[in-house]
Amino acid sequence: MNNRNLLIVSTSTVHGNGYLGYCEDTIKQFFMGVDEVIFIPYARPGGITHSEYTAIAKKKFNELGFKMRGLHEFDNPKNALLTAKGVFTGGGNTFVLLDQLQKLDLIKTIQSRVKIGMRYMGTSAGSNITGLTINTTNDMPIAHPTSLNALALVPFNLNPHYLDPDPNSKHMGETRETRIKEFHTYNSQVVVGLREGSWLKVNGNSIVLEGELSARIFIQGKEPYELTPKDDFSFLLNH
Amino acid sequence: MNNRNLLIVSTSTVHGNGYLGYCEDTIKQFFMGVDEVIFIPYARPGGITHSEYTAIAKKKFNELGFKMRGLHEFDNPKNALLTAKGVFTGGGNTFVLLDQLQKLDLIKTIQSRVKIGMRYMGTSAGSNITGLTINTTNDMPIAHPTSLNALALVPFNLNPHYLDPDPNSKHMGETRETRIKEFHTYNSQVVVGLREGSWLKVNGNSIVLEGELSARIFIQGKEPYELTPKDDFSFLLNH
After folding, report:
1. Of A12, A140, A186, Cβ closest to residue B142
2. Which residue of A52, A103, B162, B167 lies most exposed, with the fewest beta carbons within 10 A?
């Protein structure tokens, strides 16, 4: 993955801001020089259609100066990816997204393209699948992919929309931290809890956190801890 | 399922109350006449061991006047169920629970025993699996069962720990209601959102909601609505 070029974004939208509004400069810079970005709409937030979802992303990307087509518009999505220079996978339901990528046999295609430099941006579910597996998604399992193995563009797992425990809550459901600790009872990979408004930029073997917040790092058998954008994240790629 | 006798409880614990404290009279009445209740500890909340989990449940059930053994204590769990008069499945992770029941080939055994009157109580994950599938669990998919088909002791799905949207939240993750609506993009069964402090009592073809709160009913293609403990829930069994 020496030529990988990834933008792993926690959420498309932060509270009080329009779709992708808060990170548009980052997106412009990330896709600079790419004429057309291919949108992967398979996560279908709220069950909207591929076309409806693509229209939302396209409007924003057009404003930012990029052409955009949805992957569902191509007769042969695999071929479309083989010539794509940049891809953006939107959020929604991670199970539905991974299931569709598996059914269309696109996992290996995306992996091999990223390996030779195709730029990949994801938000939410689209970020979740850049990790080793989707075992740390927050989503409801409304579809049942054959396997939870994901794109493995990075050698760890993501938890987008990472949410701190609410000390005032009277709800007895598990906190996010409890869930990720349970994950580590059965799985060993590192999990990065990425708060809304944060993103990881991965370029070859360089990885940095951007945005104003810290990220929460979960390592099996250790107490979770915080890393800020000034800290070194490279151990995530070299362990 | 004419002789089914189920207690489908949203949560083991409500805020400010000890384990199963708020519903102990209901439990006593439900298992009345049963000498020993078998505990199914497979959901392992927080990753605790089967023995640790059983000790917690056993302490409470002993206080209430019942003997208790964990299903993991038996050399042959299937045989243990074949003579059990009452079963309690505790909460934790629904994927881990279902996965274990599938691996031990216990699904059909529980179904056939419930059909002829073995009393079944569940809390949280243990309630979730009484529905048709676990596609409406809130849990993190830290295990990957072969299928999401559950015990189907009732012909609908459950969403325990049902949580109303927080109007003050700035978090952009999906609300519970949005998630269940997404579920209905791909699945048609009714979903009952069971709030903490509520339970369903099912006896043959009778079903009632108990506790102080209403339940939220999700029917594909309709707006979700509330039913109170005074309302008729029998349509859930007869559709």
Report:
1. A186
2. B167
Which residues of A are less than 8 Å from B178 in CB distance?
Answer: 46
Q: Is residue B224 part of a domain?
A: no
pLDDT bucket at B100, cuts 50 / 70 / 90: very high
Summarised one tens digit per residue, pLDDT across range A15-74 is 988 999 999 999 999 999 999 999 999 999 999 999 999 999 999 999 999 999 999 999
Contact check, Cβ <8 Å, A148/B141:
yes
| Residues of A tagged active-site | 124, 139, 161
Minimum-distance CB partner of A173 among B163, B172, B174 = B163
Q: B124 catalytic, yes or no? A: yes
Domain count, chain A: 1
Please indicate, yes or no, if residue B161 is contained in any of the structural domains. no
Q: Residue A71's domain is classified under what CATH number? A: 3.40.50.880
Domain residue limits at B29? 5-154+194-211
Question: Which residues of B are less than 8 Å from A138 in CB distance?
Answer: 140, 173
Q: Is residue B76 part of a domain?
A: yes
- Residues B135, A144: C-beta atoms closer than 8 Å: yes
Residue B42 within any structural domain of the chain: yes
Look up B214 and say whether it is catalytic: no
Structure ipTM: 0.91
How buried is B137 (Cβ within 10 angstroms: 0-12 exposed, 13-18 middle, 19+ buried)? buried
